[in-house]
Amino acid sequence: MQISVQATRRIGSHLRVEETVMARLLSVNVGLPRDLAWQGKTVHTGIWKAPVEGPRRVRRLNIDGDGQGDTAGHGGEQRAVFVYQDESYRYWQEHLGRPDLVHGQFGENFTVEGLADTNVCIGDRYRIGSALFEVTQPRVTCYRLGIRMDEPDMPALLVRHGRPGFYFRVIEEGDVEAGDEITLLASGPESMSVFEINALLYLPPHPRDRLERALRIPALSRGWNRSFAALLEQQRTSKIAAGNAGLGPAASPPPAWRGFRPFRVSRKIAESGTVTSLILEPTDGHRAAPALPGQFVVVRLGPSEAQAMTRSYSLSSRSDAPPYRISIKREAHGAASLYIADSLRVGDVVEVGAPRGSFTLRQDARPVVLLSAGIGVTPVLAMLHALVAEGSTRDVWWLHGARNGREHAFAAETRGLLAGLAHYHSHVCFSAPDPADRPGADFDSADIWIST
């Protein structure tokens, strides 16, 4: 949707724009926090939002009838209203094979037509109904969206696909209603889009000039301002680009093929009480392409074409010597993981995209820390395989967390791999050890929490 701007003038730090209709509010969604059982614990969350009819009052901290469960990570003056685009809904419906998605499912308060993350800038001000809003930051997605979507990888997918959505601060309280026009009143300084700001934080190399530009935006939320300031200070003190020196962004080659290829499930392996690995081999007569350690593949699978699901899974074994191995944790509400665990059989054919991703092991002589928890072990396990295969003499630190021995996938495999390294350190933490789990043998410590 194009914007026609006829006249501008600067007022303070904002560029005044003649009022121009550019988008529309399709749905107002609210919901109060609830408790739900998930993985043996109770989660207090406000991720469940549903559309409401008629006008709703938007106040400085919230919309009437709405609430947040985790007030440390959500809500507050600079995150009062979360906005997500209907165009992104259509994108995820196709990418995930989920035609059932409904407004509010991403936890947004406003579902909008227009306002793409690539077009909306931090500091932009919009009139909706009788309320005035200012864009403050992209969404920081937590695991609760994965629960709501029945897709544990959803938070990572939003970052990977560049579709986070964004937050509004309420400048003037007022009433809003589905169908209201959205009018751009002022453009923020520096003209840095939500997409650009999101990538600047999450994707290397964090250019210094862009960090400095972001820090000049008064509307940027305090949390994001502190994160960018820390990245900039790290660059100033270390004289090198911020980030893990042992990991990417190594230059990734272009994808080895376009679209999907058919792969047969040649083996199905129970790695733990909750994790299943699939060994995948191509059926089209061509070898599977090598991958960089840490890369992922997109897999399309399901009982029929009409019920096909699309998911992203990291390669979990030596990736320079196919066949591919992917490892999936069974989730109580995960449609794809339940299908893999209960219905997919050896000999079945799934569709696989070429390996992708820049979170890869960099060739280097310096020490490397491989830190993971639960099923998050898969990409770093592929990196560990690569280090052993090349006979690395690097100092390798393996730090992993699991609930207990029953859920500790790849325990014997990692011990064997580490024994093949010249220099390694290993520490495994269980958050809830079983009586049969042996300290010093099955795990090294319990009840360790890391705050960031």
Question: What would you say about this model in short?
Answer:
It comes from Bradyrhizobium diazoefficiens SEMIA 5080. GO terms for molecular function: molybdenum ion binding; oxidoreductase activity; pyridoxal phosphate binding. The protein is of the alpha+beta class.
Key phrases:
Rossmann fold, Pyrv_Knase-like_insert_dom_sf, 9 helices, 3 domains, Elongation Factor Tu (Ef-tu), domain 3, 23 strands, Tri_helical_YiiM-like, 31% strand, oxidoreductase activity, disordered C terminus, pyridoxal phosphate binding, alpha+beta, 6-stranded antiparallel sheet
Describe the structure.
The chain has 452 residues and is of the alpha+beta class. The protein folds into 3 domains: 231 residues, M1 Pyruvate Kinase, Domain 3 (Beta Barrel); 94 residues, Elongation Factor Tu (Ef-tu), domain 3, CATH 2.40.30.10; 79 residues, Nucleotide-binding domain of ferredoxin-NADP reductase (FNR) module (Rossmann fold, 3-Layer(aba) Sandwich). The protein has 9 helices and 23 strands. Helix 5 packs antiparallel against helix 6. The longest helix is centred in the middle third of the chain and has 17 residues. Pfam families: FAD_binding_6, MOSC, NAD_binding_1, YiiM_3-alpha.
